[in-house]
Amino acid sequence: MALGALIDAGADVAAVQEMCELLPLGGWDLQARPTQRGGVAATDVRVVAKETSVVRTASHINALISEARLPHRVADRALAVFGALSQAEGKLHRRPPEQVHFHEVGGVDAIIDVVGTCAALELLGIDEVHSSAVACGRGMIRSAHGLLPNPPPAVVELLVGCPTFGLDVGLELTTPTGAAILSALAEGWGPMPPMTIAATGFGAGDNQLEDRPNLTQVVVGTKTASRPQGQPVILLETNVDDATGETLAHAVASLLEAGAHDAWITPIIMKKGRPAHMVSALADPALGDQVAATMVGETGSLGVRGQRLERWPQARLDHEVDVDGRRIRVKVSAGRVKVEHDEAVRAAKLLGLPAREVVFLAEQAWRRQDDEPVA
After folding, report:
1. Do 306 and 327 belong to one domain?
2. Are 173 and 135 in contact (CB under 8 A)?
3. 238 touches 299 (CB < 8 A)
4. 240 plus 116 within the same structural domain
5. How high is the mean pLDDT of the chain?
6. pTM of the model
7. What integer pLDDT is reported at residue 375 of this predicted model?
8. What total of structural domains would you count in the chain?
């Protein structure tokens, strides 16, 4: 289905077959035909191969791939997929990975499936693979080892650390080969990453499902710039309509002392037209309980609400400047200097100057200091 989706998205099937023919394997043919599942157009890919009793080991398959003159990235990806399979099977059977005997996944059709998928990725110029959470079925399935739970142990082992979910479908929705392709090649999981979509394709499964199309979808695109992950914070808020201005001012000061990044008051109108204030605080999630307790204690509120957010603070540096013999701290960021107001007020009282003049002199002192040549 993965190979079918990539061919449906634009990978040339003849070029995929030509690349797979570099493998020292014979007696197979790659067939792709248009079809539909649930009314959605898709491509059904089948590898037609002669049945043999050959059971290949992981070392044997690695040698087949290494001996073929495949493009480096195709070979590396294919080896990574079979490496993931051998690690999982080795753990389940308590054998060294290189000695694992592959049954279904060691057949010619499975080898062509894996190498063909890696070849299609190369033909489409795919640099990164991302995947949504992986769906698994329920019940029992038949394998070379007899009846096994669904999802089978190899799939569960391969998907360790990957997001999965179960569906009430009595079919093997994710095979060991499919799980190995995802676990070995996917660099990210979850929602579709930011991209400019260039193509999409659907690979068809063999079975017709009653309540959903049996398809694997591939979306091909060019990565677009996205905002980098921000610093996690928690926003805590409460509404109060019975606190004095002095109480609210003290609450803000106490929230900052409790470790909040910032705290503020917003006038609001509550039910029945009552004037009130919303007390807000932004804090590190690790200090959420501490800041929430301070908010309740200082405002007398009966509860606090919160939500998790991200913030992107600008990089800043702390420095000191001299104003008439008084050391005053300033914060410096790109293109801006900001004087610590409390220190400017203290210096103003000692110097007998207006606070705004001390702020102006501190900013000037920083600029002069910043313009001085370095010896």
Report:
1. no
2. yes
3. yes
4. no
5. 90
6. 0.63
7. 43
8. 3
